[in-house]
Design goal:
With about 325 residues, the protein is an alpha/beta fold. It contains eight helices and ten strands. The structure holds pyridoxal-5'-phosphate. Pyridoxal-5'-phosphate binds next to loops.
Length: about 325
C-alpha cells in the first residue's frame, strides 16, 4: 500500500480544492497519508475562481458514493492570477458537509487591507484555518509562514506528545513558577510539528512595529495599483493583451500580434529574453491555456517606472521577435 498516493486504508475520504490551487494541497494530502488521488480538483469560472456549483456537485456525488468529505481548501489569492475564491459560498458548503474549511492566503491574505477589494474576502470568518506567508507580501525573510486556527485545542489534540522526564521532569509546579527555569509556559511544541523552533513571530512583529498597519496597507494598495497600471498599459496597446484582470497585485498578460500563429511560442521566447537581457524578472504561467507573463508586485523597491519599463521591454522584444516569426501557413 502507498498511502501518499492512495490514501489511508479503510473509509474513502475526499479533499476539495480548485484546479488553480497551489500544488502544496496535493503534497499535503500525500504527506498526511490522505493520498493525492483523493484531492478533487474543482473547475473554476471565467475569473479563475472555484466554481461553487461544481464543488457542491462533487461533494454530493462523493457522499452518495460513501466518500467522506473531510476538507475544502479555498484560495484567497491564487498563485497564478491572484484570484480569490468565493469564500462565503465555499465555506457554507464545507460547513453543510461537516468538512474542515481552510483558506490558503499564503500570498493574498494581506490584500484584505486594501479597502477597495476587502469585500472579496467576505466569508473568511467561516474558516477553520487560514494561512499567510509573511515571507511573501509582508516581505519577511523566507521561511516564515503563519497558520491561524479557529479552535486551538484541535492543534493540541493533533500534536501533543507523551510526557517525557527530561522535559516535564525538569520543571516544578507551574503555579509557583518564578522564572522560565521553573515552568515551561505555554506548550507551543504541542501546537505544531516542530519541537525546537525559532521565534519566527518576532520577525513579523518587528516588521509590523516598524511599518505599522497603515504602512502595510499603503504598500498593499500601491502594489495592487501597479498591477492595475500594467493592465491599463496593456489595454492601451495594440500589442499587449491582459489574460487575467488583476484582483490583487498580479497582472497576467502577453504580447500579441494578429499575424502571429503561435503566440505561446512567441511569448515563451520573449519571456526567456526578458529575464536574460533586462532587469525585469516576472515569472510565467499559463492562463486559460495561454502562455502568460506573470509579474507579481510585492517588492518594496518597485516603482511605477519599473512597471512601465516592463511593459515597454515586452513590447520591444515582442516587436523584434515578431519581425522574425514565421508567417502563418
Ligand atoms: C497560494 C499559495 N499557497 C502556497 C504557496 C506555497 O508557499 P511556500 O513556498 O511558502 O511554501 C504559494 C507559493 O507561491 C502560494 O502562492
Amino acid at each position: 500500500m502507498d498511502p501518499a498516493a492512495d490514501g489511508l486504508d479503510g473509509r474513502e475520504i475526499g479533499v476539495y480544492t480548485s484546479t488553480e490551487a497551489h500544488h502544496t494541497v496535493q503534497r499535503s494530502a500525500a504527506v498526511l497519508g490522505i493520498g493525492r488521488a483523493n484531492v478533487r480538483l474543482i473547475a473554476t469560472d471565467d475569473h479563475q475562481r472555484m466554481d461553487v456549483d461544481a464543488l457542491r456537485e462533487a461533494m454530493r456525488k462523493d457522499v452518495a458514493d460513501d466518500v467522506l468529505p473531510i476538507a475544502v481548501v479555498a484560495a484567497a489569492g491564487t498563485t497564478n492570477t491572484g484570484a480569490i475564491d468565493p469564500l462565503r459560498a465555499v465555506g457554507e458548503i464545507a460547513r453543510e458537509r461537516g468538512a474542515w474549511f481552510h483558506v490558503d492566503g499564503a500570498y493574498g491574505l494581506p490584500g484584505i487591507l486594501d479597502e477597495r477589494i476587502e469585500q472579496l474576502f467576505d466569508g473568511l470568518d467561516l474558516a477553520d484555518s487560514a494561512i499567510v506567508d509573511p515571507h511573501k507580501w509582508l516581505r519577511a525573510p523566507v521561511g516564515i509562514a503563519a497558520t491561524f486556527v479557529r479552535d486551538r485545542s484541535v492543534l493540541h489534540r493533533a500534536f501533543t506528545q507523551e510526557e517525557s522526564p527530561y522535559l516535564e521532569g525538569s520543571f516544578g509546579d507551574a503555579a509557583e513558577a518564578r522564572s522560565s527555569l521553573d515552568g515551561m509556559g505555554i506548550p507551543y511544541a504541542d501546537f505544531g510539528v516542530e519541537l525546537s523552533a525559532p521565534a519566527r513571530g518576532v520577525v513579523v512583529w518587528s516588521i509590523l512595529r516598524e511599518v505599522g498597519r497603515e504602512g502595510v496597507r499603503a504598500q498593499i494598495r500601491r502594489d495592487n495599483d501597479f498591477a492595475r497600471h500594467l493592465a491599463q498599459r496593456a489595454r492601451e496597446s495594440d500589442s499587449l493583451e491582459v489574460l487575467a484582470e488583476p484582483t490583487l497585485s498580479i497582472c497576467c498578460f502577453r504580447y500579441t500580434a494578429r499575424e502571429v500563429d503561435d503566440l505561446d511560442a512567441l511569448n515563451a521566447r520573449l519571456f526567456r529574453r526578458l529575464v536574460q537581457e533586462t532587469p525585469f524578472l516576472p515569472s510565467a504561467t499559463v492562463v486559460d491555456g495561454k502562455f502568460a507573463i506573470r509579474p507579481c508586485f510585492i517588492n518594496a523597491r518597485t516603482r511605477v517606472d519599473d512597471v512601465d519599463g516592463l511593459a515597454d521591454a515586452v513590447m520591444r522584444i515582442g516587436d523584434e521577435l515578431r519581425a522574425t516569426a514565421p508567417a502563418p501557413a
